[in-house]
Amino acid sequence: MTGFIRALTVWIALGFSVSAGHVATAAERDAPVIVVLGDSLSAAYGIDARQGWVSLLQARLEHEGLPHRVVNASVSGETTAGGLARLPRLLQRHTPDWVLIELGGNDGLRGLPVPELQRNLARMVALSQAAGARPVLFEMMIPSNYGPAYTGQFAKSFRTVAEASGAALVPFMLAPFATDPDAFLADGIHPRAASQPAMLNVVWATLGPLLAADARPAATASADRDGPY
Q: How far is residue 69's CA from residue 62's CA, in Å, rounded to a whole number?
């Protein structure tokens, strides 16, 4: 477990590179948009980008017959302050229906006061909602050597913001394999390609039902319009 905690510290601190969405076709521009606003966890460091969980999410959507288009706006080493600064432009550019907020790990490793972390998260949620998008927060965790008081308050902050705002909350994505060293690359830091589906499964358990429920009224309305009467 000690090795994992050390790996987690470096892993979040290093961050990943930006994975930008491709240029949308005319048909894709009509599809509901999911913007992923994240840090290292939402990119595919050390593996083919097509193997990362964000790319796998797009494939899962297509497999499930859902029309959503995913835009990965994650930045290496991003903080909640950085995400908050970038979000208005992303909302304007992509007019997303959903915003997945996977940020906070780097804030915790830098010892950012929890109230400031919560304010940044709450502001991103509020901006998303004001723009007509549904926000989804991602729970983050930091190593226990930051002290039980801080680590406990840090972990609790994501649920606090989610409950206060009505945003959905995705549990920590590394939980299924956090103690398995074979789930990481040779550097002991970054999840292997084989670990990415497990990360997606954690996300999908929360996000999948939301997207399906969101798509159901549209499908019903379409069926009514196309009916025999």
A: 9
CA 215 to chain centre: 20
pTM: 0.84
Q: Measured between alpha carbons, how far is 156 from 161 in angstroms, rounded to an integer?
A: 9
Is 63 a known active-site residue?
Answer: no
Give the torsion through C-alpha atoms of 134, 67, 42, 36, to 10 deg. -30
Cβ contact 41:216 at 8 Å: no
| Set 19, 40, 55, 195: catalytic member | 40
Total length of the chain: 229
Q: Is 195 a catalytic residue?
A: no
Token look-up 């948009």 returns: 33
d(CA 54, CA 50): 8
pLDDT in tens, 30-49: 899 999 999 888 888 788 88
Which residues lie across from 15 on neighbouring strands?
none
